[in-house]
C-alpha cells in the first residue's frame, strides 16, 4: 500500500500604490532592482520583503516584467484600495513568469503531459508527477488521488481492481 503527498507551490507577490505619507515616513525608500526612489502615487511591486518598480521586477528567463491578474485589498488605516496580490513561481531563487515557468521549468503530468502549475494540487510517486485528477486506476480509470492504491509492475490499481 502506498501513500501520496499533495503539494502546492508559488510565492506571494503584491502590488501597492505608494502614497506620499509612506515616502515621507521612509516606509518605502528605493527600488531593490534599480535603486531609484519611488515617486508618490507610483505603483510598487513587493516580493520577499523587497520593493520594486513594476518594470524592474522581471522574469529571470525572458526578462519581461512580471505581471498578472491582481486582486485588490484595502488599507488597514484608511480602508482605501491600495494593493493587490498574485502568485509567482521561483526558479533557483529567481522570479519566473507564468509562460516561462510552464514552458521551461514546470513538472509534467505523467498522464496528460501538461504542466503542473502553481497552486495546483499534484501527486508525486516514484519520481513521477500527476495532476490530482489525472492520478487514476490503470484498469477502471477511477481517480485514486485521495485513496490507498497498489502498484503491480507499471500498473497503479485501486483497491477494487487488485
In the predicted model, the low-confidence regions spanning at least 5 consecutive residues are 1-12, 69-78, 81-85
- Fraction in helix: under 10%
Number of domains: 2
* Spatial shape: rod-shaped
* Assembly of the depicted chains: single chain
Category by helix and strand content: mainly beta
Structural summary, described in words:
The relative contact order is 0.17. The protein has helices at residues 20-24, 98-105, and strands spanning 5-7, 11-17, 43-47, 50-52, 71-74, 81-91, 94-96, 107-108, 115-116, 122-125, 128-131, 149-152, 155-158. The longest helix is centred in the middle third of the chain and has 8 residues, at 98-105. The termini are close together. Helices cover 8% and strands 35% of the residues. A hairpin with a 2-residue loop joins strand 6 (81-91) and strand 7. The strands form four sheets. Strands 2, 3, 4, 5, 6 and 7 form a six-stranded antiparallel beta sheet that branches. It has a three-stranded antiparallel beta sheet with strand order 1-10-11, with no helix packed on it. The chain folds into two domains: 11-97, Cysteine Rich Protein (Ribbon); 106-158, Cysteine Rich Protein. The chain has 162 residues and is mainly beta.
